[in-house]
Specification:
TIM Barrel; Dihydroorotase family protein; pyrimidine biosynthesis; eight-stranded mixed beta sheet; eight-stranded parallel beta sheet; Metal_Hydrolase; 18 strands; Urease, subunit C, domain 1; DHOase/Allantoinase_Hydrolase; DHOase
Length: 412
């Protein structure tokens, strides 16, 4: 039995194709109708766009230990309704994801989810940047992505040795690179706004020094290094040069970094407190250029759920992070004039797939969405256990309508 998608416009990294009919049969997507094929359901997709299933390289859950923020089940529900067929989860749980038992626990609980969870295991014990985890042992459970998630690997010796370990099985190191001492006590981007509001700033140099150092270490060790959530124009330039020199280096950016800048923080909304912080408009434009020229490979949700008490307090005491999955498509819609749909789709499909070395693997996934449907993000529509976002209670434009991942088909 098959499903007929009528008048659907498909998008890939090259262009938006004219509307045509597509058949989904046994998880396979075809554009021609075989003879004597039984159609189970016909869906009118007039006005809808579709692409390969989306891939998120950075999202967080709370299970185990922080289930009040996000469970594996709630994360799975949010990922599905947000259009993602694959997602890399960070290891910042309690305890951290750092042993074979931890991997087996997550895989068992996530086995029936629509979205495939790709585990980023902790590179150092408890994500503290010192003692190594059992990297080779963890790899035997099928894990090939390692890092300390929201914590930077600021010890150069540890980063160097981890890069060497990962080459034994072609693993990739994910790092949120910044110098924590240069960012110490920082609340927002160091600049005119931080001076005006009297907040300790986080300077661009805290990120740029770490990225420069880590690139130099990569030159020495070899291996694959992926920079997460870059935010500085100079960081883009450093990564651009590293790529030109032939290093196996990739990068991503948080989607909200493309929408906000530091001037949006003058109202002290703690939902806008993130790390790296929103930078200057000049930095934002440099990141846009980095996406256009291929320096930045992916756009990520950087979904970081926080409970009510962590956010609703004085700005300098509030926790960093915001949720970003259900607002991901509306954010794409807002960016679609500055960055074309084919480019945006590339950064959430083939771009992240290449980072994970999945570019040539079979992928029978599809995300179908309406770029013009309006909806309200509130307690009724929010599937996350947290609501730390500046868009909560707002009317948004852009809604995922159908998702397909192999034999799994969901409509919303």
């Amino acid at each position: 039995m098959a499903i007929l998608l009528k008048s659907l416009q498909f998008i890939d990294s090259e262009k938006i194709y004219p509307a045509q009919d597509y058949i989904i049969e046994n998880g396979e997507i075809v554009s021609s109708r075989p003879d004597n094929l039984a159609i189970k359901e016909e869906i009118d997709c007039t006005g809808l766009y579709a692409s390969k299933g989306w891939v998120d390289l950075r999202c967080m859950m709370g299970e185990p230990g922080l289930e009040y923020k996000e469970t594996i089940e709630s994360l799975g529900e949010v990922l599905a309704i947000s259009g993602f067929s694959k997602a890399v989860i960070m290891p910042n749980t309690v305890p951290a994801i750092q042993s074979k038992n931890d991997i087996q626990f997550i895989k068992a609980k996530a086995s029936n989810l629509f979205t495939e969870l790709i585990i980023q295991a902790a590179a150092t014990r408890d994500n503290k940047g010192e003692d190594f985890t059992e990297i080779l042992d963890i790899n035997n459970e099928g894990v090939f992505v390692f890092g300390d998630g929201i914590n930077p690997l600021s010890n150069p010796d540890r980063l160097m040795k981890i890069l060497q370990y990962l080459q034994k099985f072609n693993g990739v190191l994910f790092d949120h690179s910044y110098d924590p001492l240069l960012a110490l006590f920082g609340q927002i981007h160091e600049g005119e706004v931080s001076t005006m509001v009297g907040m300790k700033g986080i300077p661009n140099i805290s990120e740029e020094i770490a990225i420069h150092r880590n690139i130099e270490i990569l030159k020495y060790t070899g291996g694959k290094l992926h920079f997460q959530t870059i935010s500085s124009g100079n960081s883009v330039a450093l990564i651009r040069e590293a790529k030109k020199s032939g290093l196996k280096v990739t990068a991503d950016v948080s989607i909200y970094q493309l929408i906000f800048n530091d001037s949006d923080l003058s109202g002290f909304d703690s939902n806008l407190k993130v790390i790296p912080p929103f930078r200057s408009e000049e930095d934002r434009k440099a990141i846009v250029e980095g996406l256009k020229d291929g320096t930045i490979d992916a756009i990520v949700s950087n979904h970081q759920p926080q409970d009510f008490d962590s956010k609703h307090m004085e700005f300098d005491l509030a926790s960093f992070g915001m949720i970003g999955l259900q607002t991901f498509l509306p954010a794409l819609v807002s960016l679609s004039e500055e960055l074309s749909w084919p480019l945006l789709i590339q950064k959430i499909t083939s771009g992240p797939a290449a980072v994970l070395d999945l570019a040539n693997s079979a992928d029978n996934s599809l995300t179908i969405f309406d770029p013009s449907e309006s909806w309200t993000f509130n307690h009724k529509t929010n599937l996350s256990l947290s609501n730390n976002t500046p868009w909560f209670g707002k009317d948004l434009v852009g809604k995922v309508k159908y998702v397909i991942n192999g034999s799994k088909f969901i409509k919303f």
